[in-house]
Amino acid sequence: MPQNIQDRLIGQREVIKCRLKKLKGKQKQVKTKSTAMRESIMKKYEEIRRVLEEDCRITLSLLEMEETATIQALENLIEKNCVLLKDIEIQLNEGLMESGMQSGDRVTLYEDRVLELLTATEPGLIKLDEAKADQLLGLTNNLLLFIRSQTPIAKRLLKSYYTEVSLDPTTAHPKLIISSAGDCATFTDVWQDVPEQEGRFDTTLNVLSLQCWNSGHHYWEVDVSGKIYWELGLTYPSIPRKGQKEDCWLGRHAESWCLEYFDGDYNAWHGGTAHPLPISSCFHKIGILCSFPGGLVTFLGVDSMMPLFSFCAGTFTDSLHLALCPGHDLQGTNSKPIKICQS
């Protein structure tokens, strides 16, 4: 090999080695930052747990202390009744209740003592402070409602990213009916009389959003209830739209990211590679998060806010459209529409 060519190859080898070193350094940096973020969040949740446990301890201690005092007061009243009862039984057992004025006076004395005792030990005199207890229960319930209103935290965050979107009927396959509001796509076996458009899909049952985005965070939820097949995701405008090529399908090339569901099985698609998901749940709503700062496309099962799969593109090279495919009706088993949920 000529020396100059060998030198050039060595130079290229060093360039690649340098890039590998930087990539591995970046990988380590990402892991370090992610670990630190997880630990910080876990510490906050631990602090929340400790605060709630301490507040619960204080509240229960107050109630237990008042319960102890009330029980003790009742014990004292019970003791007074037992003492007088025992005294009367002694009188009966020892036969001291003889006839005559003396015994009558003694009976009168006991009757007075019993009457006094019954008045002093009326159970209704001992009460729990139920009004305060009800207030504590009410405050506890308010705290629960507030916590529920703030959780799941991830859902609150995603909702803050919600972006208005509508479907573009000029991109829809002729066998798709797009609602007038642009939020719903329904398959029909009748070929629609629609204008021929350069951007219209003519084989795959896709439709794109009218809007596209190239920065920020965006989140949508799609209702897929009652369906056994669908595809949804994000795509660059350059996705092929004509012909039988698989490139027109979502996720079958490097220009789109897709989550597919068919008869109980979920697959995440990108670059023609399927990622089977070990999920047994059938979600009624699917969330799609697009993060331009992170170059991320994330899918979630909205029903339980379960993260399903994330793609990391690093940096998006073009703007992105939301893309939906409701699929064929499959002999009536998949006739339900696919619908974008409102915020």
Radius of gyration: 38 Å
| Alpha-beta content class | alpha+beta
Shape: elongated
SSE ordering: HHHHEEEEEEEEEEEEE
Intertermini distance: 66 Å
The CATH first-level class of the largest domain comes to Mainly Beta
Instruction: Write the CATH fold name of the largest domain.
Output: Jelly Rolls
Q: Beta-sheet strand percentage?
A: 15-25%
CATH level-two architecture of the largest domain: Sandwich
Mean pLDDT: 92
Task: Name the helicity range.
Answer: 40-55%
Q: How many structural domains does the protein architecture include?
A: 2
Main sheet: which strands, in order across?
Answer: 1-2-13-4-9-10-11
SS summary, helix count = 4
Number of strands: 13
